[in-house]
Each structure stands twice: as structure tokens, then as C-alpha cells.
Description:
Blueprint: E1 8-12, H1 20-30, E2 34-39, H2 50-59, E3 66-71, H3 77-91, E4 94-99, H4 106-109, H5 118-138, E5 143-153, H6 165-185, E6 191-197, H7 210-220, H8 229-239, E7 251-254, H9 266-272
Parallel strand pairs: 1-2, 1-4, 2-3, 4-5, 5-6, 6-7
Helix pairs in contact: 1-8, 5-6
The protein binds nicotinamide-adenine-dinucleotide.
Nicotinamide-adenine-dinucleotide is lined by residues 13-15, 19-21, 40, 72-75, 100-103, 127, 152-154, 197, 199-200, 202-205, 210.
Amino acid sequence: MGMFDGKKGLILGVANDRSIAWAIAQLIMKEGGVCGFNHLPDKADDDRQRNRRRVTQLTDAYKEQAAFVLPLDVQKDDDIAAFMAHAKESLGQIDFLLHSIAFATLDDLRKETIATSREGFKLAMEISAYSLLAVVNAARDIFSPQAAVLTLTYYGGERIVPGYNVMGICKAALDSCMKYAAFDLGPRGVRVNALSAGPLKTLASTAVGAKDMEGLYAAVAPMGRSVTHDEVGRVGAFLLSSMSDGITAEILHVDAGYNAMGTPGRLLDRLKG
Ligand SMILES: NC(=O)c1ccc[n+]([C@@H]2O[C@H](COP(=O)([O-])OP(=O)(O)OC[C@H]3O[C@@H](n4cnc5c(N)ncnc54)[C@H](O)[C@@H]3O)[C@@H](O)[C@H]2O)c1
């Protein structure tokens, strides 16, 4: 008997096999859950439908469990509405929704935060924070009682993490969006949480220097390392399952304890010695 037997839901944010959303989705599907996926819409002149194929190449191995793969750009209300209408038709009600989406231009990420462009700030905020509200609102009528929503955040929204820059501001906004959404949806029994993951190598994280951050976590975190995709996947699945009933409006850190440090710890000893 799987933890997700009889459960259905939506996975937003698989780009490739290194995506955090894929780590979480795989566990859910292995535990019996049925998932509908999105992909970034392909350009009209891309006959090979590269974005779609990157996702279907993964979901093809889960024929029974992957219900559909459809285009969805969170900047487009029509896309969101069409995606949710299809989800209703295909799945009826949903028991879980994963939001694992962020974007900022490289140009803006590489600037000092105070030099972030107005357009770049709006774009990053819209895709990385507002989109949680937009998708959850569009899904409000298809949530089953006791459904769970999860978004992916990072410590750079709580504390200054040089290099994370405008994305840190987006994560602070996302954390707040998550809490207000938890309040709005609480009376329906729907929970909304955030998983704050330690650095993992993915498409998105290369832009914010995850590779260097892994070394820092190895030197500073209580566990002396960063985390793995599998560790993040398991906690993600837990927060989307009924095993976490009673947890909402929470930021759960899966970061080998890094966020609890008040000094650089062992790294400081190394610098002294
Ligand atoms: N990798 C890390 O170290 C790390 C750590 C903490 C939090 N996170 C967060 O995890 C989430 C997933 O990132 P990831 O690291 O798995 O990288 P990823 O590149 O695999 O995933 C990012 C996803 O965002 C999607 N996306 C971007 N713009 C979109 C739009 N307009 N509409 C729809 N989808 C859009 C991309 O298609 C992609 O699937 C992000 O919110 C990221 O900030 C990542």
C-alpha cells in the first residue's frame, strides 16, 4: 500500500531530471500517486517541441501514474485557466499541488541587488512569487478537502546570501504569499507550506551559484554537507501527503541544519587554525 494510493495532483516545475519537482514527483508516483505535469510552452517555430519532450521523456517511464503533460506559462492567466480546466476534467479533484517555479534574468542576478532593473524585478517577482497565488487561486475549486500545496523556497529570503540578490527578495515575498494563502485556504482544510532546500545542482540554481554554495554548506552546516535530491524529494512528498496533516503556513528547512548556525562554526575554526 503506497502513501499516495488513490491520490491525484499537479506538479508544476519539472524542466529536466535534475529538477527538484522531478525528485518529489517520482516519489509520489512510486507511492501510487497520479500526477498532471506542466512544461514551459514551446515556441511556435520549434517543431521538435523541446520543452515538452524534456518532460515527456521523463514521464514516459510512468505511463500509469503520469496523467498528462500540458503547456503552462505562469505569466499567462489563460494558460493557468486552461491547465486547471484540463486538470478538473482529467483528475476531478486534486489532493496535492507542487509549485516549484522561479526565474530572474542572469543580467539582474549578476548585478548588485540595488541595481536590479525595474522590469527585471517585476518579472522575477511575477514568476517566482505571484505565480503561487495565481495557481492556487485558479485551483481553489478543485482542491479536495485536506489537499496540500507546497512551494520551494531558499534561505536567501530570510537572510542576506550574497549572489542570491533579487531572488532573495522574491523568496521573502514567496514565503509571505505561502502564509497568506495558508490562511485563506485553511477553512477549506487545504494546507500550504514551503520547503527551504539547501543548494542542489539544477538548471535554475547554476544562475545563483549553487555549486559554490555546496562547498560552503559542507564547511558550515552541522551535518558537514549539503543535501541530496532524494532527501529533498522525500520531505517534499511528506509535506504533500496526509502524513503532514496539521502542518500549514510552515517553512521546513531541508538544509543539513545550515539555517540554525549563528556563526560559520567549524569554518571559523579552520580559518583560525
Ligand atoms: N536548486 C536549488 O539549490 C534550490 C534551493 C532552494 C530552492 N530552490 C527552488 O526550487 C524551485 C525549482 O528550481 P530547481 O532548482 O528545481 O530548478 P529547475 O530549473 O529545474 O526548475 C525551475 C522551473 O521553473 C520553471 N519556470 C520558469 N519560468 C516559468 C514560467 N514563466 N512558467 C512556468 N514555469 C516556469 C522552469 O520551466 C523550471 O521547470 C525554484 O523555486 C527554486 O528557486 C532551488
